[in-house]
Specification:
The complex is a heterodimer of chains A (330) and B (443). Chain A is mostly helical. In chain A, 60% of the residues lie in helices and 0% in strands. Chain A folds into two domains: 122 residues, no CATH class; 160 residues, no CATH class. Chain A is globular and about 80 Å long. The radius of gyration of chain B is 21 Å and the shape is globular. Classes of the chains: A mainly alpha (330), B alpha/beta (443).
């Protein structure tokens, strides 16, 4: 022992790292990736690969050549953004749409705010909403591309359950009539394999597996996800009790339109969600409420992307004024 | 469900490699270096001179203020110097240096092994004896015990809690004394209860020390006023506020003292020192010290005289590997890094820990990802990520509003941070500054 190391306590570290956390998020997404590969085949994998590579490259180029700092792509946060964005696109989306989305997600939503830890809005969602507004036709084309694995499974219908219902209701049909026309609108379909939707929301079970993994690994706490789901259930429950022919029921609202992937993987993003437990609950309730309102009264069939982005903008306020309980407060 | 404190906390590994090594007597060396600043408060004033002969246990420096403590020689021999000598951080501190000759004890000390159960002294006599014998808190803060056992006017103690938690990894000195000297600890607790005039006593021990719980329980059968409370394993349960919360559910108010909840906490090693002072008239000049580390050849527990140089202690556990990088006095979470290995041990030294560079080297700091793991881990309900930012910006008014002064410096925040941000470094500095600002205000 020639030289002694001297620094203040603590002298040991729990070995947690940003990279390990991001890796856990990727692992938690893997069941959904496998299921989407089964249903959508190469086109799903193509989107995911393009998304991850594009996001990582955009971050690298901006850090290395514009900011002139050491690139931090090894923390895997850009890769997570890329995969999440891909999972939020329709399986038929072309690769260049994914590329544009990646540039917006990383370049605009993340790096212009200062990079990891500084962005206000969830980068993947900013990318998705940008694409939805810029390429509405592509982003709502739910036709299912050819697949190696899918041989004539009954999952070929195009439109998402929510858009089927929105169109039906606006043409004056009741929910009962719409369901009679579309036998695929059953809960079993939604739970295991859906009739239509984005790459990542094929199977509710796969997403819930990911949720359980994140909880077990203590990457996230359940507060945000559960308060979103409970709020959606309660609000849509009240509406559907009042008029079951106009308003969809709670189970339907939770299983469709990206609510699961949004509440498990997007709303729980550390950077853009509140840091205190009470803040998390307020944020979750807000997302749930806005989602249902957009679905029932707005012009978009889904709504959770907008709901999360709206509540993202309240996070600085929540962090500033909703504090954790202090020990021994007088 | 075992009891524990109500918020925050972490679960570092609970390696206690030296747990089953019985306490051994460490030999008395040729020189002893006895610091005058072994306690919180004013340094003690030497009452011997160069050339004086001293006995083991003889008073050599007296308390010099309300918060101060007597200091006794830990060896017999001749005072060779009274001069500044570098402490573990290398800062010069007044020391009495003694050339050792034999080991002749002061005759008033009862050196028999027999356990004295009867408490003959009155509460006032107990407090005086504890002060005379220089007993200080052995749990880390080194607060003079007689002061802590004298609640300020208007405050009344109701409960005494003996801290047998030892929640830091590696350290086993408290564990060993609980296993080897349980009855003396219980008598020490009873003495302090008599001094405080309380009839309710608890001893909190974490469940990762089942043998200590069993032994203490079997002995506490004959001391019904003291109950053993097994606690869930969680760091920093040995913190005073956390232990009071865990055992009684009472919360020490912000900026308040434990006595505001009617509770006094004393470490189990302090209880042993109180027993020895009151029942055996033995001043505090030796204590149990764990010398350990994953990389040391041996891991041992010593009964060690105060003023033993650290390098001698290190040599007793075998050769150190090349990658041994950090020497810590205390535990890995709250201990102090040693920069001067010729510094000497003090009364409250409980452990000497060797860590390798791999175990202790700090990793490169990244960006805060706002995961709030630090806030979840904070046992005081603070927001370390925010305090860190405010501290770096020097925003003292905001730091005060965010109650940086409540920080107990346990290190949970920094331990959990995935971005390796040295949160506590900044918080600790800003806390000291904010406390200075608060003290300078007119009352």
């Amino acid at each position: 022992m020639r030289k002694l190391l001297v620094s203040p306590a603590p002298h040991i570290h729990g070995n947690e790292s940003t990279r390990k956390i991001m890796r856990d998020v990727l692992i938690a997404l893997s069941p959904s990736l496998v299921v989407s590969l089964y249903f959508f085949g190469v086109s799903a994998i193509e989107l995911v690969l393009v998304g991850a590579l594009a996001c990582v490259s955009v971050e690298y180029v901006i850090q290395k050549y514009l900011m002139k700092v050491k690139p931090t792509i090894n923390d895997l946060s850009a890769a997570v953004t890329g995969v999440l964005l891909a999972l939020n696109l329709p399986p038929s989306a072309p690769w260049w749409v994914m590329l544009i989305g990646s540039v917006v997600a990383i370049g605009v939503a993340k790096m212009s705010f200062g990079g990891l830890g500084h962005n206000i809005f969830n980068p993947a969602l900013v990318g998705r909403v940008f694409l939805l507004i810029s390429f509405p036709a592509i982003m709502t084309d739910w036709s299912i591309p050819d697949s190696w694995f899918r041989d004539g499974v009954d999952a070929a219908s195009g439109a998402t359950p929510l858009s089927l219902i929105k169109e039906g209701l606006s043409s004056g049909m009741t929910l009962e009539q719409i369901q009679a026309q579309n036998p695929n609108l059953s809960y079993m379909h939604m739970l295991f394999f859906k009739t239509g939707g984005s790459v990542g929301e094929v199977s509710a079970i796969a997403l819930i597996l990911g949720f359980i993994y994140l909880l077990v690994r203590k990457v996230i706490r359940p507060h945000i996800t559960l308060s979103i789901l409970v709020t959606i259930a309660v609000v849509s429950g009240i509406f559907s009790l009042c008029d079951p022919q106009q308003f969809t029921d709670p189970a339907f609202n939770i299983l469709t339109g990206g609510v699961l992937i949004g509440s498990i993987f997007m709303a729980t993003d550390y950077v853009t969600s509140p840091m205190s437990t009470r803040g998390m609950v307020i944020y979750g309730v807000g997302i749930g409420f806005i989602t249902v309102m957009i679905r029932y009264f707005g012009s978009y069939p889904e709504g959770i992307s907008f709901a999360i982005l709206i509540m993202n903008s309240f996070v600085p306020l929540l962090n500033k004024y909703v504090k954790p309980k202090r020990f021994g407060r007088r | 469900m075992k009891k524990t404190f109500s918020m925050g906390g972490i679960h570092p590994h609970d390696k206690k490699i030296s747990a089953e090594s019985a306490i051994e007597r460490f030999p008395v060396l040729s020189k002893a270096y006895i610091s005058m600043s072994q306690h919180i408060g004013a340094p003690a004033t030497p009452i011997v001179q160069k050339g004086d002969k001293v006995l083991t246990g003889q008073l050599i420096a007296t308390s010099s203020g309300f918060i101060s403590a007597n200091i006794h020689s830990s060896v017999s021999g001749t005072v060779s110097a009274i001069e500044p000598y570098p402490d573990i951080a290398g800062n010069p501190v007044m020391h009495i240096i003694i050339d050792v000759e034999g080991d002749q004890w002061d005759e008033s000390i009862d050196r028999s092994e027999e356990i004295v159960r009867d408490i003959k002294l009155t509460p006032q006599e107990i407090l005086k004896r504890i002060a005379d014998c220089g007993v200080i808190g052995m749990g880390g803060a080194s607060f003079p015990t007689h002061v802590k056992l004298s609640p300020p006017p208007g405050k009344k103690a109701e409960i005494l809690i003996i801290n047998g938690v030892e929640c830091e990894p590696y350290i086993t000195s408290d564990y060993r004394i609980m296993v080897e000297r349980p009855e003396e600890i219980l008598i020490g607790a009873r003495i302090m209860m008599k001094a405080l005039g309380v009839s309710e006593g608890y001893i909190g021990i974490e469940v990762n020390k089942p043998k200590a719980i069993d032994v203490m329980k079997s002995f506490s059968a004959s001391y019904p006023e003291i109950k053993v409370v097994p606690l869930k394993k969680k760091y920093p349960q040995g913190g005073e506020k956390q232990l009071i919360d865990a055992v009684t559910g009472r919360k020490v108010p912000s900026m308040g003292l434990p006595i505001d909840t009617g509770v006094v906490v004393q470490n189990c090693a302090t209880a042993l020192a109180v027993y020895e002072a009151v029942q055996k008239n033995k001043p505090l000049f030796e204590g149990v010290v764990t010398v350990t580390g994953d990389c040391t050849e041996q891991q041992r527990n010593f009964l060690l005289r105060v003023g033993t140089p650290i390098d001698a202690l290190l040599n007793s556990v075998g050769r150190l590997p090349k990658d041994a990088a950090k020497l810590i006095s205390g535990g890995p979470m709250m201990g102090k890094a040693v920069s001067n290995i010729s510094a000497a041990t003090v009364k409250s030294t409980s452990s000497l820990l060797v860590l390798t560079s791999e175990q202790t080297l700090r990793k490169e700091e990244g960006e805060c990802i706002r995961c709030a793991k630090c806030a979840d881990a904070c046992p005081m309900g603070l927001e370390p990520f925010l305090l860190n930012k405010l501290a770096r910006a020097g925003r003292y008014a905001d730091l005060e509003r965010e109650r940086v002064y409540d920080c107990i410096e346990c290190g949970c925040c920094m331990y959990t941070c995935p971005a390796n941000i040295p949160l506590l470094d900044y918080i600790r500095i800003s806390k000291a500054d904010v406390l200075k600002i608060l003290r300078s205000r007119p009352k």
